[in-house]
């Protein structure tokens, strides 16, 4: 679901980077890769493993929570807490390899900014990242089900098609994109592991949809008929609203953060 530590850019399609405001070593720009770029295979593997692990955390903690308590509030608290810690660790670990997107909305938003001269992923990287993230999300849901003795693939019956839930996804995704690209514009992406994980944890509670905010994760969660699942019939609506949210988020970034200017400047 995210980008990793970074600064300004030297080029759009390759690994843009510049020293940060406090003189630390150069870090990759949002969606870009470290100074010595790992092979695309390694980056794709990082996205696959990271997305799979993220979905396994979300689905697995949801199953565990429902087995331990019947209180829905406590179930959501356990689910969101596990997600916060799991996501933060995954961004910290895999961010230096692939940028730790784990999210097609983030990948495509960064591809769009790269096309317009900003830092981000090239078309070839985006074309590899997105399907890899989807495969990873499905694998993560199946893995979680296997760990808890659930049917490996059982379509969710949890309908999430109500209009207020779709609005929640627009809000959740717009906020995520605003956060990631706002951190990039102000040279603070070194805080992404904490900031992004904290935002998702909060959005579990302040959005009606419990903040999927991720098309790949949405697809993966359709494969499990457990606490975190989403009915296949609700998937298209959620994904559509997530991309609307991504556009809104990029528009807010353009409005709030002047292009080419940073807090250091």
Structure, described:
This protein has 8 helices and 2 strands. α1 packs across α7 and α2 runs antiparallel to α6 (192-206). It has helices at residues 40-68, 72-98, 104-115, 123-147, 163-185, 192-206, 215-221, 232-256, and strands spanning 17-18, 27-28. Strands 1-2 form a two-stranded antiparallel sheet. A hairpin with an 8-residue loop joins β1 and β2 (27-28). It is mainly α. The protein is 62% helix and 2% strand.
Give structural attributes:
single chain, 265 residues, mainly alpha, two-stranded antiparallel sheet, 2 strands, 62% helix, 2% strand, disordered N terminus
Topology (elements, then pairings):
Elements: E1 17-18, E2 27-28, H1 40-68, H2 72-98, H3 104-115, H4 123-147, H5 163-185, H6 192-206, H7 215-221, H8 232-256
Antiparallel strand pairs: 1-2
Helix pairs in contact: 1-2, 1-4, 1-7, 2-6, 3-4, 4-7, 5-6, 5-8
């Amino acid at each position: 679901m995210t980008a990793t530590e970074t600064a300004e850019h030297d080029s759009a399609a390759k690994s843009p980077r510049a020293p940060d405001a406090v003189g630390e070593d150069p870090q990759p720009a949002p969606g870009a890769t470290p100074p010595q770029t790992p092979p695309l295979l390694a980056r794709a593997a990082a996205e696959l493993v990271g997305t799979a692990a993220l979905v396994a955390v979300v689905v697995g903690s949801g199953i565990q929570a429902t087995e331990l308590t019947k209180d829905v509030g406590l179930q959501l608290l356990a689910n969101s807490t596990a997600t916060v810690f799991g996501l933060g660790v995954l961004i910290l670990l895999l961010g230096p390899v692939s940028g730790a997107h784990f999210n097609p909305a983030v990948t495509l938003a960064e591809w769009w900014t790269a096309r317009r001269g900003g830092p981000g992923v090239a078309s070839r990287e985006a074309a590899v990242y997105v399907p890899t993230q989807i495969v990873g999300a499905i694998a993560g849901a199946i893995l979680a089900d296997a760990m808890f003795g659930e049917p490996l693939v059982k379509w969710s019956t949890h309908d999430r098609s109500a209009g207020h839930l779709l609005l929640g996804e627009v809000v959740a995704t717009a906020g995520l994109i605003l956060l990631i690209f706002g951190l990039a514009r102000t040279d603070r992406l070194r805080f992404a592991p904490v900031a992004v994980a904290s935002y998702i944890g909060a959005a579990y509670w302040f959005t009606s949809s419990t903040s999927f905010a991720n098309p790949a994760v949405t697809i993966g969660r359709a494969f499990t008929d457990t606490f975190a699942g989403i009915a296949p019939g609700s998937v298209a609506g959620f994904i559509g609203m997530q991309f609307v949210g991504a556009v809104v988020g990029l528009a807010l970034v353009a409005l709030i953060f002047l292009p080419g200017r940073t807090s250091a400047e």
